[in-house]
């Protein structure tokens, strides 16, 4: 037995483990966002996603309402409604294009969509002639209070 102490279960352990057991199995499964249907052909979904990504990247983390406003101002073509935009945002999260942040403001929650941090682009290597000119000669380090051993 898991929670036995010399053949008996302590009352505190039984109550505690029972609460954890009930809490664990009462939770709903997470939605598999990779299987979201974008309701449009994939080519069109990718073009809408690219436009929405640009809107979110330029205006920072946005709520769904602000994203809808900015998307209408930017003229994102292909979005049929605000509900369709929400489906597209969920589809983009499943494709690892966006992430969903939760800000707690008092007892309220505010959910924000933001772009994932982009990979830092490596700069092309600088020619070796400029590297040689930039190098400096190091001075020898002097040791204080120690005598040099021979």
From TrEMBL:
Positions of region (Disordered): 115-150
Compositional bias segments (type: Polar residues): 126-136
Basic residues composition bias: residue spans: 139-150
Name of the protein described by the UniProt record: Tumor necrosis factor receptor superfamily member 21
Lineage: Eukaryota, Viridiplantae, Streptophyta, Embryophyta, Tracheophyta
